[in-house]
Each structure stands twice: as structure tokens, then as C-alpha cells.
Amino acid sequence: MTSSRDDDGDPTASLGDDAAAAGRSADTQPVHGSADSPHGRRSTDSPPVRRLDDWNADRLRSLADEYGTPLYVLDVDRVQANYRRLAGAFPDAEIAYAAKANALVDLLRIVCANGATIECASAGEVYRAREAGIPGDRIRYTAVNPPERDLEYVVDAWKDDPTLTVTAGARDTVERLAALEYDGRLCLRVNPGVGAGHHENVRTGGDATFGIPAERLVETAHDAVERGFDLVGLHAHVGSGVLDADQREAHRRFVARVADLATEVVESVGSLEFVSVGGGFGVPYREDEPPLALDPVAETTHDAFADLDVCLSIEPGRYLVADAGVLLTEVNTVKETSATRVVGIDAGMTTLLRPALYDAYHALRSLDPDASDREPVPQTVAGPVCESSDVLCVDRPTPRFERGDVIAVGNAGAYGAEMANTYNSRPRPPTVVIDGSDSRLVRRRESLSDLTRLEAAAREGVAE
Ligand SMILES: Cc1ncc(COP(=O)(O)O)c(C=O)c1O
Ligand SMILES: N[C@@H](CCCC[NH3+])C(=O)O
């Protein structure tokens, strides 16, 4: 395995001033490439888990007062601490941040300033990365059944900057890229036959639709080389939210299988620059769940690739941003029913989709100064959307929430704002970034007029 970067220079050099500034503090120096453990890893000092109780309630309440609710809050220092911890465990690996977890332009700049590449799942994410000023050699686009419009946009971006890399998960995608006269850097995504994740809907290996079937990989690689592509990489992704022992064991088998497949490709086509083993590093959502021990995962991965002369790449999304974010929401209704105490809040499944989609658990805490004195009672917390699945929790024993309380919802930094939508014509919430003692609005609240802006029938509609 070789190191991902041959320069240890300033990764922000080609970014704008803002990005360079984001990377300038002592806290944000890239950590790649240094070693002080048998596997070249080095420890970092930030706690591996940040619970909801660790957030400063007064500060969050004052942000809710200033910007209103629902409101996403993202703490830049925590993103950077998470980045350093992961980079410390995988010092030789390239870290490609999976923008799908949270694609705010500000955030892309910050992780890139720390040394990351940006892993993009769509033309939209490539567009965001370019808006952030990120150069092509830090952008990777992984096509999933790509609409023609996406391919065309990415091929145009590659014409502007041929250092960009495209990952194809199907032979058809390779053919369609060739038809668009793309013959640049190509990575192939394989389905290694093993998946893992916090819910069956987020397992992307094994019985899933993603990637080239393993038995077709070598012939597809040959085909790509014969067509004149610059075949630089192999990619696979196990799924999302690897945390418990069974999932870690599946991840171990996954990594071993990807290493075998990479060996087959290298033997057949000569060499590869990198192998990406995807993301999936889980974080604890429940108060009593332990954090993921990164070192054994890194060691297993390192060992699996020890005999291969390739750079290792990882694609974390959730691990970098989940516990760096909270959602703030206000209680507007409380009613006792014969079955439970129902607490109505102003954030719903349109604001945070994960509970409705995956039955996901998110910790809840009232920020009211008296909240800790209140007795825990079973409470069902429901949003403002006309769907009975619009509940954050059912009968969860929590200190009584009262009307007017601001509730903080934990681990909302990943797949929170990013999956927000406007169902029931609910404008999407804003995001405020906190950066040390400063805070800034990085995405404004959508207004009612934003809802109709694209419709021809609206007064100022611009539909084509
Ligand atoms: C291809 C790919 N890479 C990376 C990720 C990031 O996953 P996670 O947020 O679990 O690290 C995903 C999402 O599951 C993905 O589909
Ligand atoms: N959206 C999922 C993660 C899966 C990402 C896509 N591969 C979640 O919130 O847990």
C-alpha cells in the first residue's frame, strides 16, 4: 500500500481565500502521511463520541432565538476533530468525504481544506464541489444509473479540468462515457457480494443494485482499457452505519473480498492507482451505544491491502458530520391521550427524514433551563406533516417536554438537512455553522415564495 499524497503541502493552495482561511488554524492542519504507530497510525485527542448533553444549551437556545426553529446547527470544530481522528487511524489513506451526508458548500470547503477529496453522487454534488472552488483532482464522481444530463455535465467539467475522476458502476455507464468521448480517469465500482449497515435500506453491497457484478469485473476492466480509458481505480462500498460486532465482521469480509478483487484487476490490467473501500463508519445514536473503535477497522483494512501497491481511499460521510450537527425544534402542542402524551413540534419528516424512513433513533433533549428537574414520562413526539409516520419517537421515556421548549435533536449533521424536502409545502430549514465562538448563517430558511418560484403559474414563475 502506498501513501495517498506525495506532497505534504498546503491542500488549500488552489482553493479560495475562505477555504484557505478555514484550513489555516493549528487545528486544521492535514494529518496525512505522518506515522507513530506500527501501522503508521497516530492517536488524536478528541473524544470519539459527542453526546447531545455535551452541547452548550444556552448557546443553542440563543441560536434558536436568533434564527427561529426548525434550525440545523453544525459545529465546524467537531467536523475537523472527527476528520483528524479518522485521518489519524488511516494516515496513508486518501479521505474522500461523501458529500451526500451534507453537501453545504461551506462544509465542502472546510473538509477539503483539511485534506479531503470530495466524493460526489450526482452532477449536483459535482456542481457544489466546483462552486466551493475545489479542483478536479479533489473531485470524484460516482455514477449510479446516471441520467444523461448528469453525465453530460460531468464530462463538461472534466473538459475544464481533466484531473477529475469518474467512477462507473455498470458496463453501460462505461459505454455511455465513451459515447460522450470521455477517455479520462476512470474508476470501476464493483459489488463484492457483502453488505452491512444500520438498516437494510442502506446496505449497498451484496443483495443490492450497486456496482459491477464481481464476476464481470475483470472483463469490464479490460474493455475499459481497450477503449482507451485511463483506468486508475477500483471502488466498493459496503453500506452505511457499520457499528455493532456483526456489521464490523461483515466489513472485515468485505474489505478482504475487495482486496482479492483488486488483486485480480491488477494482475489482469497491470496496475491501479487507488482502491476505495467506501465509507460506512458508524456513529452511536443511542445514549448507551459505544463508539466505533477505528483502530481495529483500520488495521484490518491496512492488512488486507498490505501486498498491493495501491493507495487506499476511504469515503466517510456520517462519521465526519453526524455528531457535529443538531436540529433545533420548538414544541407547539402538548396533549394527553388515553394512550400516551403527544408532543407536537415544528420539525417533521420533511425536516429530518431518517426516523420515518429507517425507524432511526435520535436523542432528544429539552434546552429549557428547568428541563433536568422534570420527571421522565413516555412521550410520542410528532411533527407537522399529515402522515402518521411523522413521529420522531413513540412512547420514549424522556423528561416532560412542555409547550415553548426548544428541543435539540442529536446526530443531525449527517443525512439531516441533506434529505430535507418540501412535502406538504413545508419550506426547508436554514443551517447555522458555529465556528469557535462565532456563528454564521450558511443557508437561509426557505420562504413560502421559494415554494412556487419555479412554477409558471406563480406570479414571478420561471418555468420553461
Ligand atoms: C458510494 C458511497 N460512498 C460513501 C458513502 C458514505 O457512507 P457513510 O455516510 O455511511 O460513511 C455512501 C453512503 O452510504 C455511498 O453510497
Ligand atoms: N441516508 C442514510 C445513509 C445512506 C446513504 C446512501 N448510501 C442514512 O441516513 O442513514
Automatic annotation (TrEMBL):
Biased-composition ranges, Basic and acidic residues, are: 38-53
Modified positions (N6-(pyridoxal phosphate)lysine) are: K100
Q: Where do the catalytic residues lie?
A: C386 (proton donor)
Identify which top EC class this enzyme belongs to: lyase
* Known cofactor(s): pyridoxal 5'-phosphate
The segment(s) forming the Orn/DAP/Arg decarboxylase 2 N-terminal domain are 77-322
Top-level division of the source organism's lineage: Archaea
Q: Which EC number applies? A: 4.1.1.20
- Which molecular-function annotations from GO does this UniProt entry contain? diaminopimelate decarboxylase activity; pyridoxal phosphate binding
Query: Any idea which UniProt keywords this protein has?
Result: Amino-acid biosynthesis, Decarboxylase, Lyase, Lysine biosynthesis, Pyridoxal phosphate
**Residues binding pyridoxal 5'-phosphate:** G280, E315, P316, G317, R318, Y415
Region (Disordered) residue spans:
1-53
Q: In which pathway does it act?
A: Amino-acid biosynthesis; L-lysine biosynthesis via DAP pathway; L-lysine from DL-2,6-diaminopimelate: step 1/1
Q: Which Pfam families does the protein's record reference? A: Orn_Arg_deC_N (PF02784)
Residues engaged in binding substrate: R318, R354, Y358, E387, Y415
InterPro entries named among the record's database cross-references? Ala_racemase/Decarboxylase_C, DAP_deCOOHase_LysA, De-COase2_CS, De-COase2_N, De-COase2_pyr-phos_BS, Orn/DAP/Arg_de-COase, PLP-binding_barrel
What PROSITE patterns has UniProt attached to this entry? ODR_DC_2_1 (PS00878), ODR_DC_2_2 (PS00879)
Catalytic activity, reaction form: meso-2,6-diaminopimelate + H(+) = L-lysine + CO2
An annotated GO BP: lysine biosynthetic process via diaminopimelate
Per UniProt, the ranges with Low complexity bias are 13-27
Q: Oligomeric state and partners?
A: Homodimer.
Q: Which family does it belong to?
A: Belongs to the Orn/Lys/Arg decarboxylase class-II family. LysA subfamily.
Under the heading NCBIfam families, the entry gives:
lysA
Q: What does the record give as the function of this protein?
A: Specifically catalyzes the decarboxylation of meso-diaminopimelate (meso-DAP) to L-lysine.
Q: What is this protein called?
A: Diaminopimelate decarboxylase
Q: What species is given as this protein's source?
A: Halovivax cerinus
